[in-house]
Amino acid sequence: MSLSYAILGLLSYRPMTGYSLKEVFDNSISHFWHAHLSQIYRELSRMEENGLVASEVQQREGRPDRKVYQITSRGEENLQSWLVSFPQKLVMSYNDEFLLRLYFGGRIGRDEILFQMTKYRKETESRLNHFQSLYRVIEDFSKKAGGPEDRLYWELTLDLGVQLLRANLEWIERALEKIKSGDDPLKKSPG
Amino acid sequence: MSLSYAILGLLSYRPMTGYSLKEVFDNSISHFWHAHLSQIYRELSRMEENGLVASEVQQREGRPDRKVYQITSRGEENLQSWLVSFPQKLVMSYNDEFLLRLYFGGRIGRDEILFQMTKYRKETESRLNHFQSLYRVIEDFSKKAGGPEDRLYWELTLDLGVQLLRANLEWIERALEKIKSGDDPLKKSPG
DNA sequence: GAATTCATGTAACTTGTTACATGATTTA
DNA sequence: TAAATCATGTAACAAGTTACATGAATTC
Fold it and tell me: SS3 helix, strand, coil % of chain B, rounded to 5?
């Protein structure tokens, strides 16, 4: 289960609560990994049972208690051995609901498709904007934790996220034109 | 659950067994949707309970029985209303184990990263080759089922799959160079 | 003779998703 | 004063994964 390695890796930079782990997931690795808060809490409990992490409850006046998790030496070993083992099977389970609809586009009207595609473009654009703002987050974070080596790899993964979104947007433009030109009665039956 | 819509959509072209549905998943929509055979069987049972599909057992001499599923009118309605409803939340759960390792690349040696990246490139290349062979599958299939409209959309989804893989490969080349040049002691501290 | 394909599923388990429950502090 | 943020989780269910079980026909 890769989620536990994602958690171990992030805890290897600094101890964190489940809540703050979720923030890092959303801000720093959302371009290639997503997890729900409830998943993170469940996984942390399991990992503590297995001795991969250890928790300490911090009581603070007024504000609610925080349960701060840190990686154990066993957790470090676990992480390390995972990092150097290239997966036998590359899991690439890319299930895309929008593409599933588009595949069956022949079953609905072109206007509906154009409408959905335009919405999809808007969403993709805002995701691209979000990703581009993450370079700043990496810069800030590399000053606090990790070294210049870490920063190289953080930026590389983000580069891919940005490039894939750009390729996606280029495809959207071409697809819109293809669909529109198919809609043009002059081009449908020439002569 | 989008799996049931994928099944309904495919059954709307022609009746199929669970086994042949799996083949279509792997050959025709694998670039944006993946499902295990056991998932398909489970989902078909559930859908039959809900009246979205109906099955008929065909007995054949010598060979094992086949359970052929077809879409019901209720299933058609179900599919149609899903197709015209743009999702409130675009599910983009893209979890990539390779990128997760790369993100933590600072924790392992550069040689290991280069080794894994090279393997990743090889896998990505073979996926691209597979995708490119699917245009032929679409061509063949559009002669048997569906019309020219369907073919446009089938090709569009495949176009995206191909373009994303190409963008991925371009990124790999650049990433390899960046990692290698960071490894070069001459570039590390000039002078 | 061994492996692959066709064809059906069940069982056990892990992961992902959504809703619920609680409650203080801060910001709009 | 309403909403958002911080902070913890549980419960219930849906979806994804892997292993097991069966057995004929075909291909290597």
Answer: 70, 5, 25
Domain interval for residue A75: 2-83
Strand D: which bases are under 7 Å from protein Cβ?
6-12, 14-19, 23-25
The C-alpha atoms of residue B106 and residue A145 are separated, in whole angstroms, by 12
Let me know if residue A91 belongs to a domain. no
Helix (H) or strand (E) holding B56: strand B53-58
Q: What residue type is B129 in one-letter code?
A: N
Which of B33, B112, B156 comes nearest A178 by C-beta?
A: B156
**Is B156 close to A32, i.e. CB distance below 8 A?**
no
Residue that is written with structure tokens 């990703």 in the block: A131
- Coarse DSSP helix, strand, coil percentages of chain A, rounded to the nearest 5 percent: 70, 5, 25
Whether A148 and A113 share a structural domain: yes
Q: Are B165 and B131 in contact (CB under 8 A)?
A: yes
**Mean pLDDT to the nearest integer, B79-103:** 84
Q: 0.70 exceeded by the pTM?
A: yes
Determine which helix (DSSP H) or strand (DSSP E) holds B158, and give its type and residue range. helix B148-183
A140, A71: one domain: no
Q: Are B168 and A160 in contact (CB under 8 A)?
A: yes
Residue B146 falls in which region: left (phi positive, over 0), alpha (psi -120 to 50) or beta: left
pLDDT tens-digit profile of A57-115? Answer: 987 766 778 999 999 999 999 999 999 998 766 655 678 899 999 999 999 989 999 99
Residues 6+ apart with CB under 8 A from A30: none
Which among B107, B159, B168 has CB closest to A12? Answer: B107
DSSP string, A7-61: HHHHHTTS-B-HHHHHHHHHHHSTTT----HHHHHHHHHHHHHTTSEEEEEEP-S
Is residue A65 helix, strand or coil? coil
Strand C, nucleotides covered by protein (CB < 7 Å): 6-12, 14-19, 23-25
Domain-located, residue B21: yes
Q: How far is the CA of B187 from the C1' of C18 (A)?
A: 52
- Tell me how far apart the alpha carbons of residues B99 and A191 are, in angstroms, rounded to a whole number: 53
Q: Do B105 and A153 touch (CB under 8 A)?
A: yes
Q: How far is it, in rounded angstroms, from Cα B185 to Cα A157?
A: 24
pLDDT at B171 over 80: yes
